[in-house]
Design goal:
alpha+beta; 3 domains; four-stranded antiparallel beta sheet; 4 strands
């Protein structure tokens, strides 16, 4: 590499854990990626022209980014879009990003087919539904054609979703049946299940027996009374109680019955 005597002289070379530091006679210092340092013939006393120095900095910038990208794919699978997004956050130019992504692809370190396989395995473990899987893959940069080629069996979707039902029922067991069903439905939607699959799963739910449902209503009525009794009276108290209990999914007629029963007990 040609150089001119411009005063840009290397006065010290100090390797560190992740970088090689060059110190220059004008007080400037430059941290090089080890791969870049090994590509250039650099030593104490060498003088660089401005052109050589700019070239070294440019190669160092893309070299550092390339090492960063390699460190990412060494841990897990990435798509080209994911790597590109990370590089852009490091202030990489479009040309740098395209070159690095192509380099990783050429070395089979980015492989969308492999990424889809890895993702589907994780999605199965997390019980993701079809919609969420497709949404996540599209977000990660997988092409529409590859996503469309994934087969989703309705029976498997149902069985996979059914595995989640016990945990959802336990989570919402203290709510009314109607409210419990609504929340479970929404939980399945967030996991990416289709409305048809959710309805099939919810069809096996049965309402709590009447005594249990009534016990839950009485319990929530007492809680609401403790919340509002010191703040409201008469009609306002009744309105707040009814609103609170209906938001929990209880039937208006059942609420009226419990309130009448409680009033009768208090009047005795």
């Amino acid at each position: 590499m040609p150089s001119d005597n411009t005063g840009k002289e290397i006065v010290a070379v100090k390797p560190s854990k992740k970088k090689v530091w060059l110190y220059f006679s004008d007080g400037e210092k430059l941290a090089l990626a080890p791969s870049v340092f090994s590509d250039f013939y650099l030593y104490v006393g060498k003088k660089l022209s401005e052109k050589d120095y700019r070239h070294l900095k440019q190669e160092n910038e893309i070299g550092s980014l390339r090492e960063y990208a390699y460190s990412l794919v060494a841990v897990r699978s990435y798509t080209g879009k994911q790597i590109a997004d990370r590089l852009y956050k490091k202030k990489a130019t479009r040309a740098m990003v395209e070159a690095i992504v192509q380099d990783l692809t050429n070395h089979s370190l980015i492989d969308d087919d492999r990424y889809v396989e890895d993702f589907l395995e994780v999605a199965r473990d997390r019980h993701y539904g079809e919609y969420k899987i497709k949404q996540e893959l599209a977000r990660d940069g997988i092409s529409e054609a590859k996503i469309a080629a994934i087969e989703f069996d309705e029976t498997n979707e149902y069985a996979k979703g059914l595995d989640l039902l016990p945990s959802f029922e336990k989570k919402y067991e203290k709510t009314s049946f109607r409210e419990r069903k609504r929340r479970i439905y929404e939980a399945y939607l967030l996991r990416g299940y289709s409305p048809d699959t959710i309805e099939r799963i919810l069809a096996i739910l049965s309402p709590k027996d009447e005594d249990s449902e009534n016990t839950s209503l009485k319990r929530d009525y007492e809680k609401a009374m403790r919340l509002y009794a010191n703040r409201y009276q008469g009609r306002q108290l009744k309105e707040h109680l009814i609103k609170n209990l209906m938001q929990k999914g209880y039937n208006y007629t059942d609420i009226e019955s419990v309130m009448e029963e409680a009033k009768h007990v208090m009047d005795q």
